[in-house]
Amino acid sequence: MVSKLLVLSALCSLAVSKPHTRSLAVHEAVATTPRGYVRTAPAASDSTIKLRIALAPKDIDGLITTLYDVSDPKSNLYGAHLSKEEAEAFVSPTSETVEKVNEWLKENGVTATPLTDAGDWLSVQIPVSKANEMLNADFSVFTHPTTNKQVVRTLTYSIPDTLKGHIDVIHPTVSFPNPKGRHPVVHSVSTNNDTRRAADATCSSSGITPACVQSLYGVPATIAKNSKSQLAVSGFIEQFAQQKDLTTFLQKFRTDLPSTTAFTLQTLDGGQNPQGNNEAGVEANLDIQYTVGIASGIPTTFISVGENFQDGDLDGFLDIINFLLNESSPPQVLTTSYGDDETDVSRALTNTLCNAYAQLGARGVSILFASGDGGVGGGQSGESCTTFIPTFPNNCPLYVTNVGATQLSGTSSETSAGFSSGGFSNFFGIPAYQASAVQSFLTTLGSTDSGKFNRSGRAIPDVAAIGTNLEIVVNGRTELVDGTSCSSPIFAGIVALLNDELLAAGKSPLGFLNPFLYANPGAFNDITTGSNPGCNTNGFPAVKGWDPVTGLGTPNFAGLRKAAGLS
Question: Using 50, 70 and 90 to split pLDDT, how confident is the model at 161?
Answer without folding.
Answer: very high
